[in-house]
Here is the input.
Amino acid sequence: MKKFHIIIVNDFAFVNGGASNVAITSALALDQAGYSVSFFAAVGPVIPELRNSNIEVICLQQYDILHDPNRLRAMTQGVWNAEVANAMNKLLTKWADHQVIVHLHAFVKSLSSSIVNACHKKEASIVLTLHDYFTACPNGGFYDYQQKQLCLRQAMSFDCIKRHCDVRSYKHKIWRVARNAVQHRVGGIPGSVKHFIYISELSKKVLQPYLPESAKLHYVPNPIDVTQSTRIEAENNQSYIFIGRLSPEKGIDTFCQVFSKLNYPAIVVGDGEGLSELKKSYPMVEFTGWLEKSAIIDVMQKAKALVFPTHWYETQGLVVYEALAQGVPVIVPEHCCAVEGVAHEENGLLYNDTDKLGLELAIQQFDNMSDDGIKALSEAAYMRYWSKADDVRQHVKKLIATYNDICL
Here is the structure.
């Protein structure tokens, strides 16, 4: 019987978003639980938590495709990263006497689908967590950046290919289509992957038509990295909070427009290419930039509600659950995955995102509530979350159950 070894694969060796946070958190937790773990990434730096663990870290110190100064190299490696394939081949050779599980998280910003091709050549077992929609959609979100709305076209159909939906240019869309075609036909994603982890029922529903009929889907929600403390007394607070990447699909413009119009106190925690322009356009909104976890918790102490005005599906919406865990009510659009944690008028409010006034009306409804009403939402948010919290320990148990199933 071969020994068990887990290789966690992610574009980045540091936390720069939800997928990286989950990949690193799970790797550290598996290590602490006594499992043999490697962490394979293309882009550094490697965070100290990984360096100071027992985890074998392989980081190729490459650029991600957005920030590579050599644009020809970025275009080429973004489609097929040969160095990554060679490095994975060496790692799998090293662990050839073990039962290896390769757990793939984010791969499109540097690694490319070449890594799956390398794993198949070594007959390594693979499981892919569906953190986004790149498995099917060329731009990764089933979102039309030009129309600023969800895209209902069939991914990679003629209707899809001819549509300029990219956040940059149509030429960039065509490059994404080419990458997606290579990913499907040469890289083997998703066709040759047998096991997938989904993190919400909605993301499963959206992606399942594009997965192989023989695919086995495992439900393993992302771990919510929140320590239980006393409930935030939202009823005593005044500020509405946005936390996340400052990009169009996240609804940051809508958030700023609504709160500037209503003249309600609003705080934005996050960073993005448009931060300086947002500051100029919306002087009434407080922008903190990106903050460390402890500083985000300090901001959350001021929250009357967390607003999650996303325009696309998302795959889970971690920040919504982090807010609920602290007793902060949430305001969420009906179409996104985060609704799975929200009971309308019980621990937050849901609104219709197809109506341009939807968010504004929801904010006004919330602001007109009595202190007792908001307190009731806050208490329900806190109690509902902690009655069935998805913490890191539970996440590891579900991962190991999934790995054992794969090895059968």
